[in-house]
Amino acid sequence: MTEAIQFQLGGDGILLATIDLPGRPMNVLNGITGAAIETMVQRLETDPEVLGLVITSGKKDFLAGADLEGIRDITTAQEAFDLSMVMKRQLRRLEKCGKPAVAVIHGMCFGGGFELTLACHHRIAVTGARLGTPEVKLGLLPGGGGTQRLPRLIGMQAAMPLLCEGGEVKADKALTLGMVHALAPSREAAIEQARAWCLANPKVQQPWDAPKFRYPGGDSRSPAVAQMLAIAPAMAAAKSWNNYPAITHIMSCVFEGGLVDFDAALLIESRYFAACVVSPESKNMLNTLWFQLNAIKKGASRPPAVPASKVRKLGILGAGMMGAGIAYVSAKVGIECVLLDTTQEAADKGKAYSQDLLDKALKKGRGTAEQRDALLARITPTTSYEALAGCDLVIEAVFEDRAVKADVTKKAEAVIGAGAVFASNTSTLPITGLATASARPASFIGLHFFSPVDKMPLVEIIVGKATSPETLAKGFDYVMQIGKTPIVVNDSRGFYTSRVFGTYVMEGIAMLAEGVHPRSIEVAGLQAGMPMPPLALQDEVSLSLGLHVADQTRKDLAAEGKPYAEHPGMAVVRQLCEIGRIGKKAGHGFYDWPAAGSKGEKTLWPGLAQLFPVAAQQPAQRELIDRLMFAQANEAARCYGEGVLRSVADGNIGSIFGWGFAPFHGGALQFINAMGAKRFVERSRELAARYGARFEPAAVVVAQAETGRRFAD
């Protein structure tokens, strides 16, 4: 027995190796596991009593992948290359020792764990297992032979999207693709199958080690594959705008590996793996999308002393798209939901939103009619506030109007129990101000969802001045309960996400007023790595909503005796709203939108050229990209400096998951870290001199430039 693998030799000569890394909830590949695998391989090679090997896991999942702390700490390409080759040498010994090795896969089997199974001669997946190579999502590539074994196993055309997109594959599909050889109903049954296979196949060889091996579907020289490889980089660039070098490196691994023998191909992969590990894109993504995200999910932003809680009954005020979405994601995890609106028709329509989503899922073979009906039974549409009795949590998702929100707050609080939490889904109105309508402001909090709720992963939790730690903890636990990622921010106008998101779209709109070609603006947004360009995104959100928020802000600040500096892009929004071009919902905004259900494409409105004539001299695309990105990063830094952001992790994760800040930068604050505060301040001041004071660098970054500090928790 070793620290990470337990060995049991059966009377049939089959060695059962159970991976069970101590002190960890999941098995990962690290120094301890690597040493145990070395022992396992050596025993298979040298022990005459061992006739075959079955590898399984003693935990809920097979193996999650490499320990990313070790990869994060690598500083040179040579270190990364050497690390990759250590694992490769072990796996080559495993597959060339002449004795059968079978992997029994259950639960999650990703990254290096999946690569370990690929080196086995036979793979049996337990029903429900999930396999894949997600490394690309962190700016990496499979460094244990995955880019070479998978294409040789299932063909280049089938392997390329799995490697370049990083999606997971369920056991049944894995069988169809040829990623595994057999399925089993349980781990125990799979182990018995594996033993039998070892005994029936005492002499084994990997397909790629056979003298007459041929790639399924052809290698890099075959006409069909060559055609695919010729267009794949262009297709990838069209989606990623070449912001993710790992995608190109994976394609290069597959192509170049298909021209040489297997062992030479492994060396090629290690070189590209090293290039990924030391790339700034991988460092950014690894830091934010792994370490910071995991810290948030482990409760870094949650008051630690408050006991865990669960919502059993939820009240939702407002059955529009947002309220309906909240009902769906809550009922999906077993919460009883009361969906309340002013008319029964509106409430029923809100419930129908869930019905529609579930029916579409059924048509695609996901779920059963019984599961659909059970979920729908948990949603009660009503007009009666009395139905809210017994709710642990009530979320209002009504129109962005203080009076309307105050009215529903009072009506709900008259019914719900003393221990219940009341939350507002407002996207801009300060929570402290809304809480003045509450009889118990300590139990009042903001839960800002994003649309569409069923797809967007983030919920922004806003803490008002009176919000208690107990209320924050309950809100945090509910967000985790429904499978969303929570960030916690302090109260402010627009909070964090709405406030910074607005700088992106408004900067793009301001460019239009300056005579920048609208197509250049939209392309700059995509080149910057944003999921949608600014003009199209404002259309999606609605110009009229943006105008309403701006007018409300002006009134509020005037009442507080504070000045209001309107963004130059708002004048454009007003002009379009005045002529009825209020966005996608009306079919007309910056774009002409196709009718609902139509297969047509949106097109930029030709009338923009008359309202905002294109200047003869156009700025460089780099200038446009910088304006869009610096506007966001600078505002995020101001939020941090003002104490709106409570942590760097919340700022980075909130920017990526909330409005799609280019993930390869690692978030809005990491954008500044990666560039360096001094350089950021210099460039910000250049932009401020040309385009206005809104680009003046945030005080906190100026201080960092002087002291050499950076954003860090």
**Low-confidence sequence ranges:** none
CATH topology of the largest domain: 2-enoyl-CoA Hydratase, Chain A, domain 1
Spatial gap, N to C terminus: 40 Å
The profile of the biggest β sheet is: 8 strands, mixed
Overall 3D shape: globular
Total count of strands: 19
In what order do the strands lie side by side in the largest sheet?
A: 12-11-10-13-14-15-16-17
CATH 2nd-level architecture of the largest domain? Alpha-Beta Complex
Domain module tally? 3
**Name given to the CATH homologous superfamily of the largest domain:** 2-enoyl-CoA Hydratase, Chain A, domain 1
Strand content is 5-15%
As a whole number of angstroms, the C-alpha radius of gyration is: 28 Å
| Mean pLDDT value | 95
Helix content range of the residues, please? Answer: 40-55%
How many separate helices? 29
Name of the top-level CATH class of the largest domain: Alpha Beta
State the secondary-structure class.
alpha/beta
Notes on the structure:
This protein is α/β, with parallel strands linked by helices. It folds into three domains: 5-278, 2-enoyl-CoA Hydratase, Chain A, domain 1; 313-491, NAD(P)-binding Rossmann-like Domain (Rossmann fold, 3-Layer(aba) Sandwich); 498-643 and 676-707, N-(1-d-carboxylethyl)-l-norvaline Dehydrogenase, domain 2, CATH 1.10.1040.50. 50% of the residues lie in helices and 12% in strands. The chain contains 29 helices and 19 strands. The strands form four sheets. It has an eight-stranded mixed β-sheet, sandwiched between helices. Helix 13 links the parallel strand 10 and strand 11. It is globular, with a radius of gyration of 28 Å. The model has no long low-confidence stretch (mean pLDDT 95).
